Amino acid sequence: MRKNSIRLRIANNSKGEQVFKAIIAHPMETGRRKNLKNGQIIPADYIDEFRISIDGEIYFEVTLGEYVSKNPYLSFVFVKRVVEAQLIQINWVDNNEIETSYDFVVNYTPDRGFSFTGDKNGSELMQLLPQAGPVCKTKPPIAVD
Amino acid sequence: MNLQSRKRRYFIKASVTIPLVTNLPWNVPQANAFPWNRFLVPENIYHELFMVYGGDANSIVTTDQLKLKVPEIAENGAEVGISVTGEKGLVSSMAIFVAQNPKPLTSTCRLHEGADLAVSLRIKINKSSDVYVVAQTQNGLVGVMSSVKVTIGCGGG
Question: Does residue B4 fall inside a structural domain?
Answer without folding.
Answer: no
